[in-house]
Amino acid sequence: MKVGDLVKISSGARHARKLSSSIVMLVEKTPRTDWLEYDWLVFAEGRYFKMGRQMEDSGEVVSESR
What we know:
The protein has one domain (6-63). The protein has 2 helices and 5 strands; from the N terminus they run βαβββαβ. It has helices at 11-16, 55-58; strands at residues 6-8, 23-31, 38-44, 47-52, 60-63. It has a 5-stranded antiparallel β-sheet.
C-alpha cells in the first residue's frame, strides 16, 4: 500500500468511523513512537482521519496510485 491508493477497509473499521462507504484514499504515513512504527492518514467522505497500520492486513487495494 502506498500514498494515493484507494483501499477497501473492513466493515468494522468502516462502522467505527461511521462511514457509508468502505473506500478510503491513503494520504500520508504518519510516524509513531511505539513498535507499530506508523499510522495512515486517510481521506473519505470529505474528511481526514488516522487509521492504524493494521488496516494493511485487512484492507484491499482496489485502485493503485501511479
